[in-house]
Design goal:
Blueprint lengths: L16 E7 L2 E6 L5 E3 L5 H11 L2 H5 L9 H14 L7 E5 L5 H8 L3 E5 L3 H9 L3 E3 L2 H5 L7 E7 L8 H11 E12 L4 H6 L13 E2 L2 H10 L4 E4 L11 H12 L5 E7 L4
Parallel strand pairs: 4-5, 4-7, 5-6, 7-8
Antiparallel strand pairs: 1-2, 2-3, 3-9, 8-11, 10-11
Bound molecules: zinc ion.
Zinc ion binds next to loops.
């Protein structure tokens, strides 16, 4: 692997950075110290804006075909696990950071949670608002509103890989978390079986909006940098009904072996 000169890891500042993959969407570097994979160089703000506009065109939203939205079936299972494993969602204040079209927020609301969303994209935010969700453009807008600014649960579903400096967002989010609150994060697993087998052709490398790819190790580092110390992995059974028995069994096996498609963690500010 060629070394990248004068590039430091954006997470741990190590100089042990190597070029790992060359993809049509740009080169991807690996930090050999903290295992973070990141686009190098990072795309400009203008490029990202053009990309997100193309993702959230009105016709795509109508057909719910935007690749930014997670399958409803998966969202439903996550919400059921949160509801079951962390006390009922009823009455809890939940912030969905990067709420996209508001699908997850709607499911949380149906469970009785008091839901707020943050969504940067104007089109997606408009859609979420139409679903009767309180959505703000960013944390600054939320904080300057009259809304309650403390939350019991903060969720980031397939969002953290899109953020410029996820540790900065997480630090700010942790300030909004109630003393006993939890942050749930899911993100593509850079050491999952699919990533290992497909290498530079891994589907998660294709989106120009993905700036980082994480392992359990590097996600821990991100939380640590954000001042969140108590991080635990979750091994929830997430099944896809369209899969047959064997494939579902295999998927469960991958989850247990930490080789499934997503890294899922729960982070807290205080030890329980
Ligand atoms: Zn690093």
């Amino acid at each position: 692997m060629p070394t990248v000169k004068n590039v430091r890891c954006p997470l741990c500042a190590s100089k042990k950075v190597k070029l790992r993959f060359f993809t049509p969407a740009g080169d991807i570097a690996l930090c050999q110290n903290c295992t973070l994979l990141f686009r190098s160089p990072q795309p400009s703000q203008e490029m990202l804006e053009i990309f997100y506009r193309s993702k959230y065109t009105s016709s795509r939203i109508e057909r719910r075909k935007t690749s930014m939205a997670s399958p409803l079936e998966v969202l439903n299972q996550i919400i059921n696990h949160l509801d079951k494993d962390f006390g009922l969602l009823k009455g809890k204040r939940l912030l969905d950071y990067g709420c996209s079209l508001g699908d997850f927020a709607v499911l949380a609301k149906e469970k009785g949670a008091k839901v707020t969303g943050i969504e940067l994209d104007d089109g997606a935010r408009y859609e979420a608002k139409n679903k009767d969700i309180d959505v703000f453009k960013d944390l600054r807008e939320l904080k300057s509103s009259n809304s309650d600014n403390k939350f019991d649960i903060i969720t980031l579903l397939q969002v953290i890989e899109h953020l410029r400096k996820p540790w900065v967002d997480l630090e700010e989010l942790s300030g909004l978390l109630d003393k006993d609150g939890i942050i749930f994060i899911s993100t593509p697993n850079a050491t999952g079986l699919n990533a290992r087998v497909t290498g530079g052709r891994w589907r998660e490398f294709k989106s120009p909006g993905h700036l980082y790819w994480f392992t359990y190790e590097s996600i821990n580092q991100v939380c640590k940098k954000a001042g969140i110390v108590y991080v635990s992995q979750v091994y929830w059974r997430i099944t896809h009904t369209k899969y047959g028995y064997m494939r579902r069994f295999f998927q469960r096996l991958l989850q247990v072996l930490r080789l499934s498609g997503s890294v899922m963690i729960i982070a807290r500010k205080t030890e329980i």
